Amino acid sequence: MSTGTTPDAPGYPAEFAERYRDAGWWQGETFGRMLRERALAHPERIAIVDPAGETRRWTYGELDERADRLGAGLLALGIGKGDRVVVQLPNVAEFFEVVFALFRIGALPVFALPAHRDSEIRHFCAFTEAAAYVIQDVAEGYDYRELASRVRADVPGLKHVLVVGDPGEHTALADVPAEPVPFENGPEPHELAFLQLSGGSTGVPKLIPRTHDDYIYSLRGSNEICRVDEHSVYLCALPAAHNFPLSSPGTLGALYAGARVVLAPRPSPDVAFPLIEREGVTITGLVPPLALVWTEAAAAGTPYDLSSLDVLLVGGAKFSEEAARRVTPALGCTLQQVFGMAEGLVNYTRLDDPEETIVTTQGRPISPDDEIRVVDDEDAELPVGATGHLLTRGPYTIRGYWRAPEHNATAFTADGFYRTGDVVRLTESGHLVVEGRAKDQINRGGEKVAAEEIENHLLAHPSVHDAAVVSMPDTYLGERTCAYVVLREGAEPVKSPALKKFVRERGLAAFKIPDRIEFVAAFPRTGIGKVSKKDLRAAIAAHLAAAT
Ligand code: J2J
């Protein structure tokens, strides 16, 4: 029998599960038990530092007790094992209280981002048949309670909205906790722990089912590679729900190690640098545009002492060699490139790799059991050094998305390799270099935008006949989005600002709104009549180059 398989998602075939257990990768841990063990071992040690407002410092004992009480309260509300709960919180301590409460009772957090709006949240709540949706009252000037009211009106099955802060018409999270009860029905290590979001290339984001066993292995492996131990202090500068700051090695890796997590409400140097000095931060992770901003701020001279910082992880999008070379001189820490994906596979440069390797590659896999194939368009394996499609299979890479059998048939090979959509090359030393992308996605400084999703929003406009969204080069973000639009003949003409406004008002994350819209009479076509996005990308790149 395969393990972790549910009617909703394919798990690992039995022979693989056995191999991963025998090898010691899967050690039969769960998140709920893990936190309890840490809390028993060092109850007084600080686990979470939340500097927003008056700084809060939760010990391991306190986090454990809060998770217990909230878990009991959620059970009393009728939320139980296997139920989905959409969690959309900024970087606040309650994120961990909620997530560990859910882990403990075996309910599955669905990790939404603070940037998500009506269309994404409605989809997550409806598609997962969520029992509850957890929000902050107001963050960065946005009132999530109003969003929740609209979503509830559209998704009647959504029974509970739980609010950190002032609940308005909903329920305050602070009113939910109850007396702890023994959780006899907690999840098993091979069962699902949560649903993570895929960057995606399809009309709606796919959900990624991760098990306790597989994810905890990726944390343990990451900790070893990034040298995270109980003395480490991890700064969570990116949105906490992102897979990178969650697990590479991230906040969950830090908690696994018994280390300290410091939450940055925003990732800018004016917020992060004082926190690094004050809290003695040793390690953090950033996407390339932020790494550039930090490098420049430090090189220009900062009054803050950053000398505690040992390691800066940079990943989520390609970090240029030139930018990579500037990190250590400016920030005085070791650069570690990370090329990962919420579906599983994570690659790191090693801290003792030669500098050339650190600045020119995106690292090598965590596990000796991570299988890597670089193939051509026909799935034929290419020799080492050739550039091709990256396929992967291993002890923490999913075998299928959640409730997506049709998509799984093409996103995975028959023998269970995940088609990453990344175009890579393997070096002689076994390191991967990301050369490009075959998936129909824009990587906007680490934020992933699925072209089809945005095209669908554009097509909803009555004047739009056809739409094709492509990436355009950008010195800061690496890529931005450019939407090519063909207007409907005879329809009311629409201009770029009005069309952007139309898309924004449909309710979606701000980073998905096209940066630029180009109106054309027709799209270039490939030999077989498909829209040639390659030609569109070349056209906008040439146009931008000519303009500068
Ligand atoms: C080029 N492209 C990269 C890199 C990710 C750690 C780090 C990142 C993610 C992440 C993650 C890249 N160079 N260094 O989950 O645990 C692009 C690839 C990849 C996609 C995955 C982690 N690092 N990418 O970014 O699920 O295209 O995960 O397939 O958001 O980001 O995106 P996501």
UniProtKB/TrEMBL annotation:
Residue stretches making up the AMP-binding enzyme C-terminal domain: 453-530
Alphabetically ordered keywords of this record: Ligase
NCBIfam families hit by this protein: DHB_AMP_lig
Annotated organism of origin: Streptomyces luteireticuli
PANTHER family assigned to the protein according to its UniProt record, in alphabetical order: LONG-CHAIN-FATTY-ACID--COA LIGASE (PTHR43767), NONRIBOSOMAL PEPTIDE SYNTHASE PES1 (EUROFUNG)-RELATED (PTHR43767:SF1)
Pfam families: AMP-binding, AMP-binding_C
Superkingdom as given in the UniProt entry: Bacteria
This protein's name: (2,3-dihydroxybenzoyl)adenylate synthase
TM helices/strands, residue ranges: none
UniProt domain AMP-dependent synthetase/ligase: residue ranges: 36-402
Pathway the protein acts in: Siderophore biosynthesis
